[in-house]
Amino acid sequence: MTETPSVQRLRPARQFSGVVRPPGDKSISHRYALLAALADGRSTIANFSTGADCHSTLQCVAALGARIEIGAAANAASGASGDGARAITGHGRRGLHAPAAELDAGNSGSTIRMLSGILAAQPFASRISGDASLRRRPMRRILEPLSQMGAQITAAGGGRPPLAFTPVAGLRGITYQPQVASAQVKTAVLFAGLFAAGETIVAEPQPTRDHTEIALRQFGVALDFPARNRIALRPPAAELAPQELRVPGDPSSAAFFLCAAAMLPEADLLVDQVSLNPRRSALLDVLRRMGARIGVVNIEEQNGELAGSLTARPPESGRLQGTQIAAAEAVALIDEIPILAVLATAAEGGIRFRDVAELRVKESDRIAAIAANLRRMGAECTEYPDGLDVPGPQSLRGAALDSCGDHRIAMAFSIAALTAVGDSEIHDPGCAAISFPEFFPTLARLTGE
After folding, report:
1. Positive or negative, the Cα torsion across 413, 415, 420, 423?
2. What is the mean pLDDT of residues 282-303?
3. What share of the chain is helix, strand, coil (3-state, %, to 5)?
């Protein structure tokens, strides 16, 4: 395996075994950073995500007045260890100040959407944008509820970034039911609710990741759950309390290696210290029903989040069984669809994906990117507006593959390359650093390259 700045070359795997400790969970890291910036005092966060997206969140909250300490500086006062430690000192919910320049969310949709819930409530003007990919992504799904709460926001054509926030004296609580289940929309509304008069309720059409609810309670915010899939928040009377936190490993990053272990003969993998949040465990359910041998070695609670270690091996029979992914399961697996599409090529009957239209407006049009790269590898697939059919089993051949500047496409097709006949190359592999800067060195270690 050799690497250049623009191309990553990969050979078929001769082995796949070892231990993986994925980077800190990206979703949790974003939320801890944003809430720590609103707390009154110094919070420490161990195992903070090393991905560029979460660094964008840190840069934004620093520009808004929070103090950020990284690595040794964060470790010194907290007793934490490792390069993943962060310390964030906030000055309370009303302690942010106007940024000196436009906030830069980079490639991070999580940053711009969740931070918008906070910016919408401020008594100062601000503006936030990002890279070319982010500026193509629609923001109407957060603009609508925040505007209903009294925010004044202008956006570029089509409701896209940059977003400009006009100062407001206050927001009002609302009851909001998103048309599409989205943890980011839920988070933006609940974060705005921290500043709103009255109660803010989000009524989800389907359950989404509950990291926001867990993190809010960890910082001392009381929530009610008056009915199924309804979350109610009243702004707390006291300031948010600073916390000592540890982020479990990212299951969406671990997914690439878990799926590789399910596909490759004689693979033997241990994934150490990863999030086992029940709303992030859908991948484990899918792998098990397809025949992969997935085990939980241990489990513990960290700051309200479940974490533990997993083992992964291919089916005893040597053949994965196909399945279908749709509806609520598709919502829970939205980040894992690219690697599951690769896995489908090794399964008897393949996988049918439906209700994943959200993939069309991610960092790339992921449905189109998956289909194009599978075809480059000689595989058949059928693309639909809201899904994909990937028959199986199919043999893959080495090919020149396009990451489309999308970290999950780059990593998914790096795993595909391990199962192919002949060498492959991934163009623009550096985008993997958006969520997992250590991905390619980790892959090299597991394959013995």
Report:
1. positive
2. 96
3. 35, 25, 35
240 assigned to some structural domain: no
pLDDT per residue as tens digits for the range 352-391? 999 999 999 899 999 999 999 999 999 999 999 999 999 9
Q: Which of 210, 335, 402, 406 is catalytic?
A: 335
**Does 14 share its domain with 32?**
no
Same domain flag for 201 and 224: yes
Q: Is 432 left (phi over 0), alpha (psi -120 to 50) or beta?
A: alpha
* 335 part of the active site: yes
Comparing C-alpha atoms, which of 404, 395, 353 is closest to residue 377? 395
The whole-number average pLDDT for the span 302-316 is: 97
Residue 145 contacts by C-beta under 8 Å, 6 or more apart in sequence?
174, 176, 178, 185, 188, 189, 192
pLDDT recorded at residue 1:
47
Q: What is the pLDDT of residues 14-25, one digit of tens each?
A: 999 999 999 999
Q: What is the pLDDT of residue 275?
A: 97
200 plus 289 within the same structural domain = no
Half-sphere exposure (Cβ direction) of 136: Cα atoms closer than 13 Å = 10
Q: What does pLDDT average to over the chain?
A: 95
Task: Give alpha helix (H) positions in 194-229.
Answer: 211-218
Same domain assignment for residues 206 and 258: no
What's the pLDDT score for residue 81? 43
Contacts with 377 (C-beta within 8 Å, 6 or more apart), sequence order: 396, 397, 398, 399, 401, 416, 420, 424
Number of domains in the chain: 2
Domain containing 211 equals: 26-231
In this prediction the pTM is 0.94
Q: Are the C-beta atoms of residues 89 and 42 closer than 8 Å to each other? A: yes
The structure tokens listed for 245 are 């936190």
Asked if 16 and 45 sit in the same domain, the reply is no
Burial of 179 (0-12, 13-18, 19+ CB in 10 A): exposed
